[in-house]
Specification:
57% of the residues lie in helices and 8% in strands.
């Protein structure tokens, strides 16, 4: 069973995310090779990044704390992606949110995700 869980974690990107944060939390610098991709590919949606962002409890707690401390009436999130996790945090604190996404498909997903609670 552990082998199956390990394989699922590897396939979903969680394994590399866990390794990354284990090294980063120890204070070691994390050096990554610059991708040799076109600008379009470099700025496209990455499911791995979104998974890392939304499952990293320390990072999300930091975002939530910062958003709560500033208690803004309005928030602008640029590059919200299809899930718009930071827009969701702002909405929970009562802010009026405008979320911008450059990819039309992801903007449509964000609109569905936010269901009229924010302008996307």
């Amino acid at each position: 069973m552990d082998t199956l869980r390990w394989r699922l974690a590897q396939l979903s990107g969680r394994l590399s995310a866990n390794r990354f944060w284990r090294v980063a939390r120890k204070g070691f610098p994390v050096l990554q090779q610059m991708p040799q991709e076109s600008a379009k590919e470099r700025t496209s949606y990455s499911p791995d990044f979104l998974y890392i962002l939304t499952t990293d409890r320390v990072r999300m707690a930091g975002f939530e704390k910062a958003i709560a401390q500033h208690s803004a009436c309005r928030a602008l999130e640029i590059g919200c992606g299809p899930w718009a996790p930071l827009a969701e945090l702002c909405l929970r604190q009562g802010a009026e949110v405008l979320a911008a996404e450059g990819c039309p498909k992801h903007a449509a997903w964000a609109r569905r995700q936010l269901r009229g609670r924010a302008e996307a």
